[in-house]
Amino acid sequence: MTSAKLYDEKEFARFIASGVCSTVGNLLTVLAVAEFASYWVALLCGIATAAAISFLLTKVFVFGSREWSKGAVSEGGRFAIVYFTGCLLYFLTALLVENMLSGYDFSLKLVQIAGVIVGAGVMVVTSYFGHRFFTY
Questions:
Q1: Model pTM above 0.70
Q2: Cα–Cα distance for residue pair 99/104, rounded to 1 Å
Q3: Run of H or E including 24
Q4: Which of 45, 8, 132, 119 minimizes the C-alpha distance to 82?
């Protein structure tokens, strides 16, 4: 009897690569939209772009789900749940790290950068496993 692996190194590497592409898409969209709209609108457009890129790359490139006719809508819903849960965990983790480190003699900028890095790490790990075992 063969059991499914908890973690696949090549799959995780593809997941990281897709995340980098999504982040670049987000950044380029924010920079482009900010030229003619408010920063808040640009951020929302960037998030939407990153989510779309992430869905497509995660579906096809990372997990090899090629079905579009009947399963894509339910995958899209599960993807959104995992994606936005990851965003929430990222946000809460960043705030928690900032709160934990703010009592020490670190600059606010350094504390916030630490929060972003730790929060992003939490989002990457939780999103990978969420997509691996729930979305696809």
A1: yes
A2: 10
A3: helix 9-33
A4: 132
